[in-house]
Amino acid sequence: MAYKINADECLGCGACAGECPVGAITEKDGKYVINPDECISCGACASTCPVEAPSEE
Ligand code: SF4
Ligand code: SF4
Description:
Blueprint: E1 3-5, H1 15-19, E2 25-28, E3 31-34, H2 44-48, E4 54-56
Antiparallel strand pairs: 1-4, 2-3
One iron/sulfur cluster (SF4) binds near residues 15, 16, 51, 53 and 54.
C-alpha cells in the first residue's frame, strides 16, 4: 500500500515533500508525485496537504 497524490487537486506547493520521512515525494512538471516503492504509508503528506490531495490507494 502507498499513498498517491491526485494531480487534479495538487497545487504544487511542495509542503508534503518536506514532511515525508523517506523522501518519497518529488516534483514533476509543477505537480508532486509519490514513489510507491519508497512510501511507507505514514500519512504525513495527507495531514500536511492544504487540499488533501494525497490519499491511500
Ligand atoms: S504517506 Fe508518508 S511515506 Fe508515503 S509519501 Fe506520504 S509522507 Fe511519504
Ligand atoms: S502538499 Fe498537497 S498541494 Fe502541496 S504539493 Fe503536496 S500534494 Fe500538492
